[in-house]
Amino acid sequence: MAPSFKQNFLKIIFCLYTPLLFSQSPPHDPKKAKALEILELNKYTRESNKAHDELSMMKSQILYLFSKGSHVKGLKKYKEYYALSGDHDYTLLREMSLMIVENGISKGTEIDSLLSLIAMEIAGEDNFSYHLGKLIKSNYFPVQAKTLSLLKRIDNEYSDQLIKSCLSSNFIMLRLEALSILVQKHHKTAIGQVESLMNMVHKAYHPIFVDFYALSGTKYAISVLKKMMSDSDVNLGLATIIASKNYKIEELIPNLRNSLTHTSPLIQESAANALGIFHDSHAVDKLEKTLKSKHEETRLSALFALYSMGQKERKAEIIQLAKKGNLFAISILPKIEGTKKTLREIYYSDDNELRINSAIALLEQKDPICLPVIKDLITLDTGAFYLQSVPSPGRAFTCIKLLPIAGINKQMIAPAKGGTAQMQAALFAKCIDLERGKFMLVVDNIFNMKRNSLIPVAISLLENFNDEESINYLLKKSNTPGAPFIRTSCHLSLWKSTHNQVHKNAINSWLKRYGKHEMITVSQKKPSKNNDDYSLTSYELSLEEKSHLLIGSFLNLAASREKSGLDSILDAMIDGHEKNRIPLAGVLLKTIQ
């Protein structure tokens, strides 16, 4: 039955006058105020519980998606969760990141395992022991090698057990690396394991084991080294002499003196050099007899040892050898007082090798006259030439040679280029000791020639100055036309030092453009039929120019601990390259520690 007009009229009157009735109550009625407060609280609690229930449900959905490997869907759902909650859930982010890393490991492929290891390395997490225990059993040499490098940093009994398990690896180089770690940790079974493995291989490989005994330094290890030094195998004796000086084992000095009368000029050269480093005055007579050797490097080693022990008159004979064109004599002139004039004379020689080695020696003496040659070496086109460090016969000295890349085996091209890049970076780093203006000439040359491989080194060296001149230079270079890598690298450095939003915006813009670029690529030599041909340098994780910048940008965004930084990382995990997701999970873990 429809309500009558009278009933409707009364309802209207009641609605209009009810507030008036309440307003006539005492203005400070505590009971009424308490009742209203409870009503409001109950209303808020109901709304809050509703929101909380929704967040809890979304959280469960996110974790479910991640458990099924649907990472993109899970990340998108997390962004909805974040929008609703208004803040990041660091506990949930941590769970998500760990699940991404664990998923990479569970796939069992070489690349996913390596990416997971890199994520662990970036995160610096201490609770990955279980995963490392699984990865160390991988069938892939690169995975085992990378796992071993992470285990080396962990100091506990479980990690030692995992390292020991590598002693039964199918890869001989991995066994040697595990032995090296155990010896450095002074593990009680290390030397026994060294001897066991040494007895299993041919005697020609015994020089490899010398460093293990030298690292150990125990009385027993030194007694073994003494026997090795007097062994009939010249290579074994040479390796032992080099180890004696590298590890400063004074107990071997008497044996070094005896080596000066060895029949091999290589042993004599190396022993003379070691005795000079030890400043053994008791060896002077024997060293002077060694000067009669027919071998130039052996005489040079004895001359330099005698000079080091106070016979300054030997300087003239060393200079004479240098002027005759002995590259090893040139290499030690920076360690001899008053040789700058001689080096300058050699520097203006028409011989390219003499010019290169004298330039490097002059750089050691902080003489800017060498810069034309040094700049050419630093910006060398490795497509045509490469630099090689060449040891003397007895390995007492080294010189540098410039060689054509076309003259080497194809398999050696990559190592040759890698070695050249390391030498170029080392030469560049030495330039920082020059007067500031001269150093900036080298820096400017690298930027102008757009040698991107050296740009991070240049920026790092400029950051060491931490002054206005460096900041102004980077500001100038951040506008370099046609060089996005240089511009963004400068912006990244400037943002770290100034925290100016302009630089951060430039980085974010670059990330949006290049975020889909694969962060890490794995290049490795194809395995031969014989596993023993592997070496620890037979593979490398090569970070290309964009990769360096991507990782650096994300790590710095993470270090800022700003919400926008986390947002950028999450966006990159959703929209970027699939292979980037695992290392970015490592970045997230580092951010929320």
Provide the fold topology.
Layout: H1 5-23, H2 30-67, H3 71-85, H4 90-107, H5 110-123, H6 129-135, H7 141-151, H8 157-165, H9 172-184, H10 190-198, H11 210-216, H12 219-229, H13 234-246, H14 253-259, H15 265-278, H16 284-290, H17 296-308, H18 315-323, H19 327-332, H20 340-347, H21 352-364, H22 371-378, E1 385-391, E2 398-404, H23 413-430, H24 436-448, H25 455-465, H26 468-477, H27 484-498, H28 501-514, E3 521-524, E4 539-542, H29 545-559, H30 563-575, H31 581-591
Antiparallel strand pairs: 1-2, 3-4
Helix pairs in contact: 2-3, 2-4, 3-30, 4-5, 4-31, 5-7, 5-31, 9-11, 11-12, 12-13, 13-15, 14-15, 15-17, 16-17, 17-18, 20-21, 21-22, 22-23, 25-27, 26-27, 27-28, 27-29, 29-30, 29-31, 30-31
Give a quick precis of the structure.
By secondary structure, the chain is mostly helical. Helices cover 66% and strands 4% of the residues.
